[in-house]
Amino acid sequence: MRAYAARVFALTTSAVRAEKLAGDASMRQYFRVHLPDGRHYVVARYPEPFDPTTHPYCDVTALFLKAGLPVPMILDADGERAMMLLEDLGDLRLQDWLPWASIEERRAAYREAVELILRIQDATALARECGSVASRLAFDVEKLEGELHFFFVNFFERYLGLSLDPERAERLHEEFRQMATELAAIPRVLTHRDFHSRNLMWHRDRLYIIDHQDARLGPPSYDLASLLGDPYVELEEVLIEEMLELFLQEKARGEERWSSERCQMFRRELELMSLQRLLKATGTYAYQTAVLSNSVYVPYIPRALQRAARVLFRLERFPALQEVFDEIIAPALSEGKGIRRDVSTGDL
Q1: For the residues 255-274, what does the mean pLDDT come to?
Q2: Closest Cα partner for 179 from 64, 48, 315?
Q3: What pLDDT, in 10s, does the model give residues 56-75?
Q4: In degrees to the nearest 10, what's the CA dihedral of 159, 163, 164, 166?
Q5: Separation CA 260–CA 114 (nearest Å)
Q6: What is this structure's pTM?
Q7: What does the radius of gyration of the chain's CA atoms come to, in whole angstroms?
Q8: Structural domains of the chain in order of their starting residue, each with its CATH number
Q9: Strand 83-87's sheet: what is its strand order?
């Protein structure tokens, strides 16, 4: 890392100081490099060489910057050495900031986050005009169903060590296909794909977006479901409802087709999207825990499933999934995490 930064800034390696940063749920590694004059940057190290002209992170960063969205700038990309030099946004994630914020500060931060989602969606046409990779990828049936299969394998088989009987597994996968088919049929807009409190950074008194390389087209509810159903934080129901109303008001103001009836349909769509997102997130946490032996995500497994149980209860659909929650998930989590199911609300 030091040698790479030294080459970029025409310094000796000994003049550069480097420190490893905490990573995310990916194969990338991050380092902060310090220069003698006090400047500091972040180096992202990828697991294999890449072509900067086609790499998704470079592509989507260019798209977001063109759309005026706040993302870290790329100062250098060395594909042969599999490294990128990025603007340093510091270490303060929205997740870390929230416990210290007042109610009004939390409201203002989430209003800003919702506005960022709307601005990402407004860049849909630009993504197509630029030929961005984000406009050529989508949450189609295959992608959405694949994420639910990822949950099935990593949570049931790898995390819980269970093998569901074939008949129950088939009924569950049929409901996964139904869920994916409904969501994939919704007209698509540009989405970040992982828009939550660990991917929003406080920097220069505003929110910046990170981890945006997987942007793609998807339902308008996708990023909002990620933000408001975020297992990394506890949000008040009144705040969630206020942010949903803000989103709908802005949509209705900007697009005539967002009538009162469309807004009601969106609420139902958001519930379904939230269920898919929470199950997919659980699969990621289970994979990190059971396969990669990364215990960081263990506390978020029961939280994600508890929220999924609430959504499932409100939807009053997917009986096979409801049976699995009642008969397998709730007892398993009750044993290991002290979480029980409240039949009046659907809570675990």
Answers
A1: 86
A2: 315
A3: 999 999 999 999 999 999 99
A4: 140
A5: 20
A6: 0.93
A7: 21
A8: 2-87 (3.30.200.20), 94-337 (3.90.1200.10)
A9: 17-21, 29-34, 40-45, 83-87, 74-78
